[in-house]
Amino acid sequence: MDRSAIDQSIRALIEPFNKKGVEIVDATTFANDLEFDSLTVMDFVAAIEDEFDIIISMNQQAEIENYGQLVDAVLKMQGE
Fold first, then answer.
1. What is the CATH number of the domain that holds 42?
2. Spatial contact of 6 and 75, defined as CB atoms under 8 Å apart
3. Is the dihedral of CA 68, 69, 70, 76 positive or negative?
4. Which of helix, strand or coil describes residue 27?
5. Per-10-residue mean pLDDT, the chain, length 80
6. pLDDT at position 79
7. What pTM did the predictor assign?
8. Selection from 37, 39, 33 nearest residue 20 by Cα
9. What is the pLDDT of residue 80?
10. Around Cβ 67, how many Cβ atoms within 10 Å?
11. CA 20 to 30 Å from 18, out of 24, 41, 59, 65?
């Protein structure tokens, strides 16, 4: 799966969580722009893990601050 396909899949997954209708760009942050709380993060991460059949560790989650980093992380995990 290439980056654009992963991007499209994640955009579809993020829609129900994007309560404020924030425009999603690579620099969009989960904490500030989307205002995700810890429960929302857990639900969103679970949806991504199910969609891509990957496991995102707590350490990896802590390093992912914006949308672009998430897409790149999923792309990297898909290749492993």
1. 1.10.1200.10
2. yes
3. positive
4. coil
5. 96 96 97 95 96 95 96 93
6. 83
7. 0.93
8. 33
9. 77
10. 22
11. 59
